[in-house]
Amino acid sequence: MFSLKYFFERKYSIMQFNAMARLLHNSRLLISTRQTGAPFGNLQSSGLHSTASLNDDGTSNAMPEKPKRPVNAYIRFAQSIRSALATSNPKASPTEISKLAAVKWQTLDQASKAKLEDEYKREQAIWLQKNAKYLSQLTDAQKQELKTERQNRIEEKVKRDQKRLLKELGRPKRPLNSFFLFCAQHKPVQGLTKDENKEQMKKLGLQWKQLSGSEKERYVKEAETEMKRYQEEMKKWEDKMLASEHTEVVRKRNVLLPPTPASSRARKGQQSAVKNVTATASVKPNKPTSTTARP
Fold first, then answer.
1. Cβ partners under 8 Å of residue 179, min gap 6
2. How many whole angstroms separate alpha carbon 52 and alpha carbon 29?
3. Is residue 207 part of a domain?
4. Cβ 89 vs Cβ 68: under 8 Å
5. 184 closest CA partner among 206, 201, 202, 209
6. pTM
7. CATH number, domain with residue 222
8. Which domain holds residue 219?
9. Counting Cβ atoms within 10 Å, is residue 200 exposed (0-12), middle (13-18) or buried (19+)?
10. What total of structural domains would you count in the chain?
């Protein structure tokens, strides 16, 4: 006969097992992907639904997956022949491969172009439906986040385009200051990681602070000489850019822009107001007439 203690211990073990089984088979169990240290953090591969953290009202903060936009007919064609072009032109750069693909596209027959265009239109129609559903699932905060990211991408693209244009137009490169001249001459190791380079620059900064005034003087003079040369080259380059109507790359303080109509009207309004004030001040006030009869 089993003892009473054994009976209750066995019953408790069975209860624990059943509770764990219900937990693992519950399809509504949501495990946060951010809790990597949780005991059940590795159960995602066993079929459990994974999501981001939940709000107090039970809604999820996870951004829904954005449908991928289909590429147009020309990009489809270029992607399909890029590998063959790279094989037949092993020394060509990616830019040159793109130019070769553009030439091939110009000579492609209309039937092949129409087929690629039809494929694009079919996928575009499907994407429009998926994208409409995706946008309807976004919260106001997520829409604002996407708007900010899109604006940042636009600003980064403008900066890259400006930098590339300045390089193509041959803008003089700004010289190093005295400290960075010292670092360039005393940097002991090349090809370091970001953290290693940061540590190395910190050490160079301490060495720079320990230098005497006379030791820093030669770096200061070299930096001043390079700056004067740079300023002369910049003046010549900006004069050349102004002559070639590339005013967008010239520093604003060196560009004399014509006044806009709005500024001209504002200036005229200010001038007329000054004239009115001057005219009013020049007019002598009349003596007040007394309404009291003389005795």
1. 205, 208, 219
2. 13
3. yes
4. no
5. 201
6. 0.48
7. 1.10.30.10
8. 178-251
9. middle
10. 1
